[in-house]
Amino acid sequence: MQNDLFQSAPTYPEGVKVHKLGDAEIVEYKSAFNESEALELLHSLSDEVPWQQDSIWIAGKHRQIPRLQCWMADPGKVYRYSGLKLRPAKWSEKVLKIRLRMESVTKQSFNSVLLNYYRDGMDSMAWHADDEKELGENPIIGAVSFGADRYLQFKAKVASDKRRLKLKQHNGSIFLMSHTVQNNWLHQIPKEKKLTLPRINLTFRHVY
Ligand SMILES: O=C(O)CCC(=O)C(=O)O
């Protein structure tokens, strides 16, 4: 159920929409990559990226995460989450071009990216915030998605706060998440059992 506080604001300059989330905001840049570019990137990234099937400890058991992933970053920029230590793969030419587009659209600069490959609707990502200490006190995240449209859900970190937001991220669209999104809110990609199409999402970050 969506709370009124979370109703999306009107569209500002063409293709740019600001979604309010309490004190935070998510800026959506629709079609930052056009449909054919985005589908070409889905196919080339699925072939070219050195995807890893990682496992993490959950409730005392070692389990495969329900997606493939790859961490690309400037040399030495290691990323740790859920007990995993991700050493950077070399930037590929395609991902560098995507980074340039991300930086020119959002006017932010990034030195790393986590790529996630959801092979179908049974792949997912559990509730979390991108608030690890190497991302600094105010992490700004630029996310772009290619392939299937998937829902991204938000809830407050404080359990008594029942506010929720559910956004659909479309093929080729960018979501720029302000720092308060990571500091005060959790997000997840829920499973969608009937979905058979793949999606690749890239979350660009600045690692200190
Ligand atoms: O796939 C997505 O849209 C979310 C990715 C994400 O939350 C992350 O990389 O931390």
Topology:
Layout: E1 16-21, E2 24-29, H1 35-48, E3 55-58, E4 61-64, E5 68-73, E6 79-81, E7 84-86, H2 93-106, E8 112-118, E9 125-128, E10 141-147, E11 150-156, E12 164-169, E13 174-177, H3 179-184, E14 185-189, E15 199-205
Antiparallel strand pairs: 1-2, 2-13, 3-4, 5-8, 6-7, 8-15, 9-14, 10-13, 10-15, 11-12, 11-14
Bound molecules: 2-oxoglutaric acid.
Question: Strand fraction band?
Answer: 35-45%
Envelope shape: globular
- How much is the average pLDDT? 93
Give me the Rg, rounded: 16 Å
- Tell me the number of helical segments per DSSP (H or I, 4 or more residues long): 3
CATH topological fold name? Jelly Rolls
How many domains is the backbone divided into?
1
Biggest sheet strand order reads: 1-2-13-10-15-8-5
Termini gap? 37 Å
Percentage of residues assigned to helices: 10-25%
Q: What is the highest CATH level, the class?
A: Mainly Beta
What can be said about the biggest beta sheet?
7 strands, antiparallel
Low-confidence segments, given as residue ranges, are 1-5
How many β-strand runs? 15
CATH architecture: Sandwich
CATH superfamily: Alpha-ketoglutarate-dependent dioxygenase AlkB-like
Ligands bound here?
2-oxoglutaric acid
Output the structural class: alpha+beta
SSE order: EEHEEEEEHEEEEEEHEE
